[in-house]
């Protein structure tokens, strides 16, 4: 964990209610599947956001405007300094992926899979990607995945883009392992539908984000786990679903 | 050179800053970020006889200048605290620790306190009779002078270390409860635990917390905590650990002027993992600016003349 200051390089709407925030600062110790915790002026608790992408000097985060906090974040101009805790959570383990891992993202759960896709490609693996949204207006990062040389299958609930249905309707492809992030009903459906082992990135309301308050604990087959510290990534075998 | 040293029932602390129970785990999450030996002490996560999962999520909600929590005393149980957490803590913290103990019966309080009393690392026992997030235990012992005194007597009968009773603000007369604890043999009083509150999710039209209600903490509660420390200082002669929304060294001085001999810092640690260290670092400068040479001289200072 590192407590550091970042500066907003850009903060723009990229799909319905969905914003991309690029920050400049110290990105050492950040890994795919981890999250950062932002202090916003005027709000007491920090806002945890998953890491979408990072390089030596910049960090990209994607968030949905869902309440007053994210509304205030969307209004912050370029140049604003933000107090950010980085390097939080365990992140994805690329070790067990095999040559053809499947990445399954739903809505605001898509971002962490982007940094993961880049990491897997660097390791010489060829991920298959499924991105699920409610409708065409909410689709984001399809082009960014394409730019990596991947062709994501897109699903929308209303059929306005790609395959009509849910991410599970696009899972009938060969894969050696899977990684997923999205709303809990989607994760549970993926859990049921999947034919290999895999890793799930979970979400819960957090107090601190670094393991101190026990605010985000969940029950697993291997004991009580703090989503923020022992997670947010848990394996299929750990989940008591 | 100012002197930040304070004493709690014979236990000498290099400064009065103690991270509060439930906001500092068993210390080592913070030890990864800074050397926690700069702290006066810290109060470890509320421990019960049996391991506890705690309440159904969500357990956390934001409020204006504060937060609600309804964790519900999640802890690994006294066996693992003694067998695993304390040995782990020994590697990163070399000062006496405050053992925070909770329970669901008088017997449980006595048994856990008797066991933790034997641990060399423990400098002081803080008996939590004020957790608002558990049912048939915790706060129900702290809301009447009689039951508060009963827990105090049972714990004092089986312990040798200083026993501080941690009181709930969710009562009509906190001074009467503090007095009952003092009369029953308590060595000190620790206050306040969180204030009972709740929030409702506007979209779901249901309570936001899984436990319906939770405990309010953070800067929002500081004036309430300060007032209660003031009242208890007037009611008892034993030392007081004051807490509730402390976020700066100025808050520490203010709480001590109201009557606290030491302070605990709670919610601030969750927002800024370095909060307690920053307060420790800031304290000598604030003392110099305010012309305070010895911190102990100001305890209860606002009550006189």
Describe this structure in words.
The complex is a heterodimer of chains A (241) and B (305). In chain A, 15% of the residues lie in helices and 36% in strands. By secondary structure, chain A is α/β, with parallel strands linked by helices. Chain A has a seven-stranded mixed sheet, with helices on both faces. In chain A, strands 1-2-5-4-3-6 form a six-stranded antiparallel barrel. Chain A has three domains: 2-88, Elongation Factor Tu (Ef-tu), domain 3, CATH 2.40.30; 95-201, Nucleotide-binding domain of ferredoxin-NADP reductase (FNR) module (Rossmann fold), CATH 3.40.50.80; 203-241, Dihydroorotate dehydrogenase B (pyrk subunit), domain 3 (Ribbon), CATH 2.10.240. Chain A is globular, with a radius of gyration of 17 Å. Chain B is of the alpha/beta class and 305 residues long. Helices cover 32% and strands 18% of the residues of chain B. In chain B, the strands form four sheets. In chain B, strands 3-15-14-9-8-7-6 form a seven-stranded parallel sheet, covered by helices on one side. In chain B, helix 3 runs parallel beside helix 5 and helix 7 packs parallel to helix 8. The model of chain B has no long low-confidence stretch (mean pLDDT 96).
Q: Main traits of this protein?
A:
heterodimer, A: 241 residues, alpha/beta, Elongation Factor Tu (Ef-tu), domain 3, Rossmann fold, Dihydroorotate dehydrogenase B (pyrk subunit), domain 3, 3 domains, 7-stranded mixed β-sheet, 15 strands, 15% helix, B: 305 residues, TIM Barrel, 7-stranded parallel β-sheet, 4-stranded antiparallel β-sheet, globular
Write the layout of secondary structure elements.
The complex is a heterodimer of chains A (241) and B (305).
Chain A: E1 2-15, E2 18-24, E3 35-39, E4 47-54, E5 58-64, H1 68-74, E6 81-88, E7 101-106, H2 111-122, E8 128-133, H3 142-147, E9 153-156, E10 163-164, E11 177-181, H4 184-193, E12 198-201, E13 217-220, E14 223-226, E15 233-235
Parallel strand pairs in A: 7-8, 7-11, 8-9, 9-10, 11-12
Antiparallel strand pairs in A: 1-2, 1-6, 2-5, 3-4, 3-6, 4-5, 12-15, 13-14
Chain B: E1 6-8, E2 11-13, E3 17-19, H1 28-31, E4 60-63, E5 66-69, H2 78-90, E6 97-101, H3 106-117, E7 122-128, H4 139-142, H5 145-156, E8 163-166, H6 174-183, E9 188-191, E10 195-197, E11 200-201, E12 206-207, E13 214-217, H7 222-235, E14 240-243, H8 249-258, E15 262-265, H9 268-271, H10 275-290
Parallel strand pairs in B: 3-15, 6-7, 7-8, 8-9, 9-14, 14-15
Antiparallel strand pairs in B: 1-2, 4-5, 5-13, 10-13, 11-12
């Amino acid at each position: 964990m590192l407590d550091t200051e970042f500066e907003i390089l850009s903060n723009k709407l990229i799909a319905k209610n969905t914003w991309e925030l690029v920050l400049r600062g110290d990105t050492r110790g950040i890994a795919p599947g981890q999250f950062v915790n932002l202090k916003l002026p005027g709000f007491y608790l920090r806002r945890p956001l998953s890491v979408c992408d990072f390089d030596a000097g910049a960090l990209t985060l994607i968030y949905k405007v869902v309440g007053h906090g994210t509304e205030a974040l969307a209004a912050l101009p370029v140049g604003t300094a933000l107090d950010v805790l980085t390097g939080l959570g365990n992140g994805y383990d690329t070790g067990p992926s095999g040559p053809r891992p499947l990445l399954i993202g739903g809505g605001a759960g898509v971002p962490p899979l982007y940094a993961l896709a880049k990491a897997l490609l660097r390791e010489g693996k060829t991920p298959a990607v499924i991105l699920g949204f409610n409708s065409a207006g909410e689709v984001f990062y399809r082009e960014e995945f394409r730019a990596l040389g991947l062709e994501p299958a897109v699903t929308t609930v209303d059929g306005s883009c790609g395959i009509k249905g849910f991410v599970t309707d696009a899972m009938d492809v060969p894969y050696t392992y899977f990684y997923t992030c999205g709303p809990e009903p989607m994760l549970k459906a993926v859990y049921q539908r999947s034919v290999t082992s895999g890793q799930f990135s979970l979400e819960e309301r957090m107090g601190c984000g670094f393991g101190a308050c026990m605010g985000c604990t969940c029950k697993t087959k291997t004991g009580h786990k703090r989503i923020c510290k022992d997670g947010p990534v848990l394996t299929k075998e750990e989940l008591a679903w | 050179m100012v002197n930040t040293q304070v004493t709690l029932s014979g236990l000498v602390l290099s400064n009065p800053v103690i991270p509060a129970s439930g906001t500092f785990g068993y210390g080592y999450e913070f030890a990864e970020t800074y050397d926690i030996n700069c702290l006066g002490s810290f109060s470890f996560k509320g421990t019960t006889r049996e391991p506890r999962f705690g309440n159904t999520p969500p357990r956390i909600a934001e409020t204006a200048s504060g937060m609600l929590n309804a964790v519900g005393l999640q802890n690994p149980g006294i066996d693992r605290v003694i067998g695993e957490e304390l040995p782990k803590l020994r590697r990163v913290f070399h000062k006496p620790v405050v053992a925070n103990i909770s329970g669901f019966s008088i017997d449980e309080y006595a048994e856990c306190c008797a066991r933790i009393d034997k641990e060399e690392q423990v400098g002081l026992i803080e008996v939590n009779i004020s957790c608002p997030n558990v049912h048939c235990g915790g706060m129900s012992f702290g809301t009447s002078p009689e039951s508060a005194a009963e827990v105090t007597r049972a714990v004092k009968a089986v312990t040798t270390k200083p026993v501080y009773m941690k009181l709930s603000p969710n009562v009509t007369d906190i001074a009467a409860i503090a007095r009952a604890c003092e009369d029953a043999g308590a060595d000190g009083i620790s206050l306040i635990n969180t204030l009972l509150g709740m929030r409702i999710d506007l979209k779901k039209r249901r309570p936001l917390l899984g436990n319906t209600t939770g405990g309010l903490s953070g800067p929002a509660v500081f004036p309430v905590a300060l007032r209660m420390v003031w009242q208890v200082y007037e009611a008892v002669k034993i030392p007081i650990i004051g807490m509730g929304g402390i976020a700066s060294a100025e808050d520490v001085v203010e709480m001590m002027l109201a009557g606290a001999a030491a302070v605990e810092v709670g919610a601030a640690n969750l927002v800024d993992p370095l909060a307690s260290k920053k307060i420790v670092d800031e304290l000598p400068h604030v003392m110099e600016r305010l012309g305070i040479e010895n911190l102990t001289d100001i305890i209860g200072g606002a009550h006189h003349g």
